[in-house]
Amino acid sequence: MKRIMFCRWLVSLLAAAAVPFASAQTADPVKVGVMLPLTGPAALAGTSILEGIRFAADEANAKGGVNGRQVQLFIEDDEGSSTKGVTAVRKLIESDKVVAISGTYVSAVALAASKVSKEHKVPMVSAGSTASSVTSANSAGDPWFFRAFPGTDEQAEQSARDIVKKLNAKKVVIIRENSIYGSSLTDQMKRMVPSFGGEIVGVESYNPDERDFYSVLTRIRARGPDAIYVAGLMDAGVQIIRQSREVGMKTQIVGSGSMMSDKLIELAGPASEGFAVSSMFEPSTPNRFGQAFARAFRGKFKKEPDVYSALGYDSMHLIIEAARRTKKVDGSAIQAALKSMNNVPLTQGPEGTVAKFDAQGSVSFKVGLAIVRHGKREWLPFD
Amino acid sequence: MNSLNLFLQFLANGVVTGAAYVLVAIGLTLIFGILNVVNFAHGEFYMLGGYAAVTASAVLGFPLIPTLVVTVVFLAAFGMAAEWLVFRPISGRDPNNAIIASFGLSILLQNGALVVFGAQPQTWKTDLAELPVQLGPVFLTGQRVLIVLITVVLVAALLLVLRYTWTGRALRAMAQHPVIAQISGVNVRKVAVVTFAIASALSGIAGALMSSVFMVQPTSGAMLVMKAFTVVILGGMGSIGGTVLAGLGLGTVEAMVSGYVGNEIRDMIGFLLVILMLLVRPRGLFGQSTERS
Prior knowledge:
The complex is a heterodimer.
Chain A: H1 2-25, E1 30-36, H2 43-62, E2 71-77, H3 82-95, E3 100-103, H4 107-119, E4 124-125, H5 132-136, E5 145-146, H6 152-166, E6 171-177, H7 180-195, E7 199-206, H8 214-223, E8 227-231, H9 234-246, E9 252-255, H10 262-268, E10 276-279, H11 288-301, H12 307-324, H13 331-339, E11 368-373, E12 376-380
Parallel strand pairs in A: 1-2, 1-3, 3-4, 4-5, 6-7, 6-8, 8-9, 9-10
Antiparallel strand pairs in A: 10-11, 11-12
Chain B: H1 3-35, H2 42-59, H3 64-87, H4 95-117, H5 127-130, E1 132-135, E2 138-141, H6 142-164, H7 166-176, H8 178-183, H9 188-214, H10 220-235, H11 240-261, H12 266-280
Antiparallel strand pairs in B: 1-2
Helix pairs in contact in B: 1-6, 1-9, 1-10, 1-11, 2-3, 2-4, 2-9, 2-10, 3-9, 6-7, 6-9, 7-9, 10-11, 10-12, 11-12
């Protein structure tokens, strides 16, 4: 009997000790997952995007986080592979118990991972994956994968218009990566270029780790196109730009959005002069929210932000903003908050761009065009 | 542009990539032929060669020739270290152990490079890389021409060393019959070290030269080692002449396929050839029968 009494006393003592602990626990952090390719072929983009994501989380935490609760990031490397991506998203949801996920960059991985996140009712906000097919896979009106920028359909439509109308190119050759990203851009280009009065005179594909384009370019040279559109990632873009000049071509090259990087200009050197790229964000953006982001980013990292850091920033910023608008911070509430959002500004796009998701979970705004002149990208005004 | 000009350009493209295949595959075939080790980390020697050149030229500011010398010395030392730390302790056991160990070494080096150099592609900036060279209808750059020239010089030098020096004779003796070679006084340990040093240095030079053409990344060697294996199997394990022929052949066939058929099936063609070769002539073009008494 005495022993039981002692135990009770001990329990109540422990409980008393736990009380102040518990009250401190009400401000437990909001757990947000991040999945990105931090190793493997897409690591260059992944690490830049992560900088933007971390920047958004740090900025929010300095301002009191989510209604007084700090944002805690759980970061997983998906290596740009769908299998790893599915494992990563499962770990984030089942073991780390995150309420939302920022990610990922490779479209095929986003497509695979978004199926898992939908099943568990945890919303994902794209951190760079552009293929329209990922948001098309959402059930209309109930998206669990959000993309706060235009998908490949809109980007390719804009690029097709720019190539034909602004750059006055009629005969266009497409070089595309063998991936969802490359093929969805290409499919839309094939529809859009003729509709603006141009003509597709050839389509060439390459595998993501391809480095040698001499033969492909030699063959393209024989067709004499006015412009080459490259639907792929930055490292292949560098090779295509350099090697096209090496084989003696002077054809205008236009790159898809993932080639908007200062690194490309550095690696391609003088060959990048005149290269055009569709661009959603530049440090010189007319978008005032984007300007503020660029200033703060520059102040912290002592370098210019690029489209990757902007993508990462917007993705995390939206998740945090959505979490702030919920009473009980969980996956379903954040999804509802994202769906009803209509005034949260984005760093990308023209002045006044806000995250207003359509029924498929995509945001629409005008994609710009930048041209490299004197070793710097110059942004042509949105028309 | 007429079809002959197109063909000549494809041929030139093929010879340049083929030359890099040759340099990497020769090391692989030496290591296999002499030491009976299947080295999957060989592509990483190529990748490290690229980083050695980038570091020597960008960080230390070395010009072309000293950069190549630094690369050779560093990679030769690295090859020796790999032999000493990884392959020697497990030699004499089940050869499968060496395969697994080389896989492990490959992943270790890839991720090590990722930590040290980062995922960003880097390039060795040389004056030759931008220098246009036009041979009739064929466009190349100085760097690409240099790769072919250096391959010719190195292969010739290697053949001379193997033919006329004592070390070369020891290497050949080991390849032909290790037991008899040992009885005749060949120092097995020294042969192993020398083989790894030569193989690693050759692969490193290829990586250095290609880093100014295709850039270098931690995963640069991954596909290349598969291509090198293709070359070794086609040419015949342990045969240097076969490797040279198969390397240039594979480079040319790939260039023709991506030029005339389609770039997306380029990487398939080599492996298809390997399967056919294994079915029809398992020892390769010039391979010795691998059965030993």
